[in-house]
Amino acid sequence: MKKEQELLSERIEYYCKDRRLSYYALANRAAVPLTTLMHIINCSTKNPGIFTILKICSGLEVSITEFFDSEEFVNIEFEIE
């Protein structure tokens, strides 16, 4: 089963492709530093904050509910550290 970081990355990639947005364009639209966005996409950020995710959703023009509306998120396994 995939980790939450991978699922976030895949959803961002999906919506970027669907909307024909580069990561640079998304970072600008979302007012998120490109390095932050790339760390999320590359799964090197363990726990991006909810406000960062909300900004990304806004940049993608998708609600947070729609962003997480995926079977994978229903069956997610969280790492507790």
Broad shape: globular
Number of helices: 6
Average pLDDT? 90
Gyration radius, in Å: 12 Å
Assign the structural class, choosing from mainly alpha, mainly beta, alpha/beta, alpha+beta, or little secondary structure.
Answer: mainly alpha
Q: Under CATH, the topology is which?
A: 434 Repressor (Amino-terminal Domain)
Q: What level of helicity do the residues show?
A: 55-70%
Strand content: under 5%
Residue windows where pLDDT falls under 50 for at least 5 positions: none
How many extended strands? 0
CATH superfamily (homologous) name: lambda repressor-like DNA-binding domains
Strand/helix succession: HHHHHH
Second CATH tier, the architecture: Orthogonal Bundle
Give the CATH class.
Mainly Alpha
> What does the main sheet amount to?
none
Structural domains: how many:
1
* End-to-end distance: 18 Å
Brief rundown of the structure:
With 81 residues, the protein is an all-alpha fold. Helix content is 62%, strand content 0%.
Could you walk me through the main structural features you see in this protein, from its secondary elements to its overall organization?
The chain has 6 helices and no strands. The protein has 81 residues and is mainly alpha-helical. It has a single domain, classed as lambda repressor-like DNA-binding domains (434 Repressor (Amino-terminal Domain), Orthogonal Bundle), CATH 1.10.260.40. Helix 2 (23-30) packs across helix 4 (50-60). It is globular. The model has no long low-confidence stretch (mean pLDDT 90).
